[in-house]
Amino acid sequence: MAVVKIPKESLIKLTFSLGLDEHGKEILRKKSLSHVKNDATDDNIYYVAKGISGLQQHTLMDVVRQDNSSLSE
């Protein structure tokens, strides 16, 4: 039997820069957004992440989309 891939909800990970520590190393913090519809476009996700970053005092450094799927026969 063929294996079937069933898309599940996506996860978005935002990375923010909080500045530099006493050694000059960048301090990063991550926030995750779960229960994102799997059919959301990359553009929509990116612009929502940019909008959320506008509500933060720290600089948005990275947006990662993690798609999840279930496999079955």
UniProtKB/TrEMBL annotation:
Pfam family, one: DUF1659
Domain DUF1659: 2-73
Protein name: DUF1659 domain-containing protein
